[in-house]
Design the sequence.
């Protein structure tokens, strides 16, 4: 039995965080342990801020006064924390796109937490992590698995803002005190040579990917005196590795650093399972019902061919058997349930519309 309620999976981009978080999630469930994988871009994310508006209670009251026609919709999707309120505009669009005035999205964008300066961000982040911990503690038998949440998101936020490493250390130390009641465990995936990780990332995703990330963040203070394009992002990754090493050394609970240079994934998986005190369970042998499945109201369709799956964006993915009627989607927290000739999306949703929990796809004829 896992003696932790929170497993953190961290590492530089392209070190296998998502793949291994999904693996841990599946293995825990096969060991009859309730587990929830919190994907890096889960929607809504219980601890991070992706496209989320963060407001004080006073700001929230003023927002509703200015847009009274949206008040009920906002209340239904907002998360009310001890000191702050969080609203994800994407969820509003999914639920109420035909019912609320589009002006509300512009108003919410003024409160985008990602754009907050570090001192303001800290207030909102600590409040959100406290709510996450409070909620997780109520789920006494569930293990939370979070990838890229404790180190990666925070490093991006503080490093890009030009904040000193001590500020990041102090903040993550405060986060640790908040989650300490969950008895957290940290798995850090790395390559001994950071340049090897950078080279792998570039070869795997292409130089254009590096340039895209730089383009997204180029106005941030970090890049003020850095070279442009891919080389600038490579500089960022080198500093990321340095910051992550400091945070790993500071982490005050059980932790393990696993060198993935040799890419012997079976051994790496076994090492993680041993660290967590869980045995390996093989894939059950089940096959889904082939076909094209569509949701006509949304104009979305998905395709199943054996254990090959194509999502509504045309992205090819793998299915992993969970039960005769349910299949995990590899690299995503979604689960497909085959029921009454159709598919129901279960698990957790991310920012891609087809993954919304409860969405039904009927088999096309």
Sequence:
């Amino acid at each position: 039995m896992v003696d932790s309620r929170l497993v953190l999976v961290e590492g530089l981009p392209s070190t296998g965080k998502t793949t291994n978080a999904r693996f841990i999630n599946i293995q825990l469930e096969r060991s009859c342990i309730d587990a929830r994988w919190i994907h890096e871009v889960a929607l809504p994310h219980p601890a991070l801020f992706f496209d989320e508006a963060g407001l004080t209670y006073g700001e929230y009251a003023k927002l509703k006064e200015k847009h009274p026609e949206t008040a009920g919709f906002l209340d239904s999707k907002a998360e009310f924390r001890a000191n702050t309120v969080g609203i994800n505009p994407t969820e509003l669009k999914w639920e109420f796109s035909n019912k609320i005035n589009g002006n509300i999205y512009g108003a919410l964008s003024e409160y985008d937490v990602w754009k907050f300066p570090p001192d303001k961000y800290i207030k909102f982040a600590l409040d959100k992590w406290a709510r996450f911990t409070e909620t997780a503690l109520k789920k006494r038998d569930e293990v939370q698995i979070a990838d890229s949440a404790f180190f990666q998101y925070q490093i991006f936020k503080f490093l890009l803002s030009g904040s000193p490493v001590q500020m990041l250390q102090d903040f993550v130390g405060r986060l640790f005190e908040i989650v300490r009641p969950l008895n957290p465990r940290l798995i850090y995936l790395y390559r001994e040579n950071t340049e090897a990780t950078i080279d792998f990332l570039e070869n795997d995703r292409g130089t254009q990917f590096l340039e895209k990330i730089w383009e997204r963040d180029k106005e941030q203070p970090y890049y003020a005196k850095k070279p442009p394009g891919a080389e600038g992002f490579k500089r960022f990754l080198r500093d990321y590795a340095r910051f992550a090493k400091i945070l790993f050394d500071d982490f005050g609970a059980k932790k393990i650093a696993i060198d993935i240079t040799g890419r012997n994934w079976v051994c790496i998986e076994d090492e993680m399972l041993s660290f967590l005190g869980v045995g390996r369970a093989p894939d059950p042998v089940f096959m889904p019902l082939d076909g094209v499945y569509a949701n006509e109201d949304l104009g979305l369709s998905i395709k199943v061919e054996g254990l090959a799956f194509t999502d509504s964006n045309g992205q090819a993915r793998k299915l992993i058997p969970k039960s005769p009627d349910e299949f995990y989607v590899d690299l995503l927290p979604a689960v497909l349930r085959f029921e009454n000739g159709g598919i129901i999306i279960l698990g957790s949703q991310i920012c891609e519309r087809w993954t919304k929990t409860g969405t039904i796809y009927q088999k096309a004829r």
Observations:
- The radius of gyration is 21 Å.
- The longest strand covers residues 6-11.
- The mean pLDDT is 96.
- The chain has twelve helices and 16 strands.
